[in-house]
Amino acid sequence: MSRSERSPLLLAGLLAAAGTAHFAAPRQFDHTVPRSLPGSPRTWTYASGAVELALAAGVALPRTRRVAALATAAFFVGVFPANIKMAVDWRHRPAPQKAAALGRLPLQLPLVLWARGVAKGAEGRS
């Protein structure tokens, strides 16, 4: 399997793992939900986990890959405020935790570009 064939499956795996984590350990995600969002943080945690699982399935399937990958790129942009909140909230934590929270911020750009690349690769195969 070539690198370009593995890329969508790896992205789908990342999304599936993250989505599953939202259900397996929701409390850690509840704390990243911006307070300005209406409703319970747990509802947002479960909703974002469900979205990640749906995106994973869509990216994994060639027929829906392009649209799902574009939606994934948008999702990665949409959850960026949660990463900012985490970095702000964790600014006084021990150095390894603070570094992890800050490290998530620049990671969003490669994730968005990866998802866009998967979408572009799917265009060529349709």
From TrEMBL:
What UniProt keywords are attached to this protein's entry? Membrane, Signal, Transmembrane, Transmembrane helix
Its cellular-component GO annotations read: membrane
Q: Which InterPro entries does this entry report, sorted A to Z?
A: DoxX (IPR032808)
On whether Membrane is a keyword of this UniProt record, the answer is: yes
* Pfam families linked to this entry: DoxX_2 (PF13564)
Segments traversing the membrane:
68-88
The main place the protein resides is: membrane
Which first-to-last residue range defines the signal peptide? 1-23
* Protein's cellular compartments: Membrane
Q: How does it sit in the membrane?
A: Multi-pass membrane protein
The keyword Ion transport is assigned to this record: no
Question: Under which name does UniProt file this protein?
Answer: Putative membrane protein
Provide the species name: Streptomyces capillispiralis
